Amino acid sequence: MFRLENVKYKQILHIDHAAIPERKTTCIIGKSGSGKTTFIKLLNGLISPDAGEVYYKGKALSQLDLIKHRRRVIMLQQTPSIYDGTIKDNLQIGRSFSNLDEATDTEMKKALDCVNLHKELKSTANELSGGEKQRLALARILLLKPEVVIMDEPTSALDEETAHEMMQKILQIGKDKGQTMIMVTHSKEVVEAFAESVIEIDAGRVR
Ligand SMILES: Nc1ncnc2c1ncn2[C@@H]1O[C@H](COP(=O)(O)OP(=O)(O)OP(=O)(O)O)[C@@H](O)[C@H]1O
User: Residue 15 contacts by C-beta under 8 Å, 6 or more apart in sequence?
Assistant: First the structure.
């Protein structure tokens, strides 16, 4: 689904070749500072390589409309963006960015349930804890229909048990929708339990 050929980005990444399969869960692993976040930013076009090319379904990203690309390839950043307003506002804003109709209250409550966030839709989003904000951002993604979901350490602010349970649900939902899931993780347990493909980055290179 993704292919990187001779990609260079600053002094940070030098990728001769890497590929990510469609409709599978791929984990990106590697030490802190090795270039994992930079790697996934290249995939959704948040940054562009200085040399080489990233291909999505055989098309060079440099030739694609990146705004449209980012609706198909959604990225959940390490520190999620939470906007002023209620939980409901924060869920709807994702829908509107993706040009989708508003979600119903029932759909929103179901998404919150999936990520074990048991709060009222009218609660103020910025009063949530760090882990709760992370789960709200995940729920926002559950209400969208991307082809690819990229997550940067999605459960770093959660305890192990909650993290595992939630990942299981999110990845299952992704599979049911036929989505490709890509996830940066430091957790060996997550890799063992969920990875169908693994890319290890070591000092900016794929091992
Ligand atoms: N815009 C930038 N300009 C220059 N250097 C950068 C930039 N962004 C990141 N870096 C550096 O590139 C290296 C890789 O960063 P990156 O965030 O991709 O690592 P990471 O593997 O995701 O780390 P972590 O696991 O700690 O999140 C780091 O040394 C970082 O300081």
Answer: 4, 6, 7, 8, 39, 52, 205, 206
Strand pairing report for 2-9 and 13-20: antiparallel
Ligand 1, CB within 6 Å, residue ranges? 10, 12, 30, 32-38
CA 3 to chain centre: 17
Element (H, E) at 138: helix 130-142
Strand residues in 45-100 grouped as ranges (E) = 51-56, 59-60, 73-76
Give the Cβ contact number of residue 154 at 10 Å: 27
Q: What would the pLDDT profile of 121-175 be if each residue is shown by its tens digit?
A: 999 999 999 889 999 999 999 999 999 999 999 888 788 888 888 888 899 999 9
Q: What is the ipTM of this complex?
A: 0.94
Query: Residue 153 maps to which CATH number?
Result: 3.40.50.300
Which ligand 1 atom lies nearest to the CA of residue 39?
18
What is the position in ligand 1's atom list of the atom closest to the CA of 204?
14
34: CA distance to ligand 1 center in Å?
7
What is the pTM for the complete model shown?
Answer: 0.93
Q: Are strands 51-56 and 2-9 parallel, antiparallel or unpaired?
A: antiparallel
C-alpha span between 47 and 79 (Å, rounded): 17
Count structural domains, the chain. Answer: 1
Question: Hey, which of 11, 15, 34 would you mutate to test ligand 1's pocket, going by the most ligand atoms within 8 Å of its Cβ?
Answer: 34
* Full residue range of the structural domain in which residue 70 is found: 2-206
